[in-house]
Design brief:
By secondary structure, this protein is mostly beta strands. Helices cover 5% and strands 36% of the residues. The protein has a single domain (2-119), classed as Metal Binding Protein, Guanine Nucleotide Exchange Factor, Chain A (Beta Complex). Bound molecules: zinc ion (2 copies).
Amino acid sequence: MLHVDGSCHCGSIQFEAEIDLDKVTICHCTDCQRMTGAAFRTVVPAIKNSFKLLQGTPTTYLKIAESGNRRIQAFCPNCGTSVYATSEFNQEIFGLRVGTLNQRSEIIPKKQIWHRSAMPWVSDIDNLPKFDKQPS
Ligand SMILES: [Zn+2]
Ligand SMILES: [Zn+2]
């Protein structure tokens, strides 16, 4: 178990939670690709009832999956950072976005889901040229 805290990019939303390091997951689903603008999203569920919003009020978007599953997606109304997702009907488990957590470099994914829609290059990025910052 790990205590984590996190925030959106502009800092108006702050939260804390406890997570189980065995449940860190990379999601390659097309909803995550679309909603993040990225190749995949890394998520971890907060342990039941451990999520505490410390500051700010997220805006919510109800995402209805192909399966009919209804998930509330919460994001910062100012900077747009995605903060968590939770069930429309049972708000005990909050799916946290690992990139928003201050401890993110210690939070290592344990599995990949929806791999059928993974970008075809996702396993190969280690071979690309690397720069410490954006090259000029
Ligand atoms: Zn923000
Ligand atoms: Zn996904």
